[in-house]
Each structure stands twice: as C-alpha cells, then as structure tokens.
Write a structure and sequence with these properties.
The chain is of the alpha/beta class. The chain has helices at 18-31, 47-58, 108-118, 122-137, 145-164, and strands at 4-10, 38-45, 66-70, 99-106. The protein has one domain: Metalloproteases ("zincins"), catalytic domain (Collagenase (Catalytic Domain)), CATH 3.40.390.
Length: 167
C-alpha cells in the first residue's frame, strides 16, 4: 500500500504543483523504508502562517522556509471517541491505525526569495525544502556538524534520484 501524502496549497504568492510535490514526498518516504499505511501532510502556506508557527513552536521571529512537525509515538487507544467505552459497530479489531509521520510546512514566498538569492531554480528550492522537511520527520537533524553533513548528503542523493532524474 502506498504512503498517503496529503497536500494543501494555502497561499497565493507562488505557484505550487501539489501532484508533483506529493509524488516526490511519497517516493522519498518509500525509499527510506516507510511502507504500508503511513500518512504525512505537506502544506504550503503564506509568510504570516509560517511566521506564526515559527514563533509558537520554535520561539523564532519571522517567516522561515520550512518547518517539520513529527508526530510523537503515542499509541492510539482502542475504543470509541470520546468516551472510549468500546470499539463500536463496524470496527475491525485487527486493523492497525495508520502510522502518522507528521506535517511538513513549506512557505513558497520564502522559497522563491531563497532561490533568487542562491541563483537556483524555484522548483529545485521547493524540492529541497520538501526533502529536508521529510528527513526531519524521519528523525534526522542538523544540530551537530556531522549530522548536518550526513543530512545534506542524503538530501542530494534523494534529489538526484527523485527530482533531478525522476525517470
């Protein structure tokens, strides 16, 4: 079963091809061993929305290009919501809930500026941010220099495989 990637474009500053970026996300996740019933959200938002998230969750002021919000490994309790008093009709007790990986939030307006400043293609910048965010969901980080180098090398491998040469 393919990984479910839910994409939403909640901004109007720059064009976003939801099908393309959803396909990239799915390919990256599957290549990293994510299979079965797994879900991730890929959201494209405006500068005000990402600035609010950046301040609320990271205590940083202003907009940024990408944020990742991994879902913690809290088990989903059995039973009905809200009273948890039983499974209710039509529930298959053997069904496992999907693996919820989390959300990747990208700001195309910031990505567009970054692309101009770095003299790279806008689509290449968006692809990098999508891959970068997904790797954060999978537990990678770049706090230490060695971690940063490993993450950047993997980003480039994945971009070469699924973005630059998707054939």
């Amino acid at each position: 079963m393919p990984v479910d990637v839910f994409c939403a474009d909640e901004q109007s500053a720059a064009p976003v091809d939801l099908t393309r970026w959803g396909r990239l996300a799915r390919s990256v996740l599957e290549s990293r061993g994510v299979t079965g019933e797994a879900e991730v959200s890929l959201l494209f938002v405006d500068e005000a929305a990402i600035a609010a998230l950046n301040e609320r969750f990271l205590a940083h002021e202003g907009p940024t290009d990408v944020l990742a919000f991994p879902v913690e490994d809290d088990p989903v309790p059995a039973g009905r919501f809200p009273d948890m008093g039983g499974t209710g009709p039509g529930t298959d007790l053997d069904d496992e809930p999907p693996l919820l990986l989390g959300d990747v939030v990208v700001c195309p307006a910031v990505a567009e500026r970054n692309a101009r400043e770095r003299a790279v293609d806008y689509d290449d910048e968006i692809a990098l941010l999508v891959v970068h965010g997904l790797l954060h969901l999978l537990g990678m980080d770049h706090q230490a220099e060695a971690e940063a180098e490993a993450m950047e090398a993997l980003e480039q491998q994945l971009l070469t495989r699924f973005h630059r040469d998707p054939g």
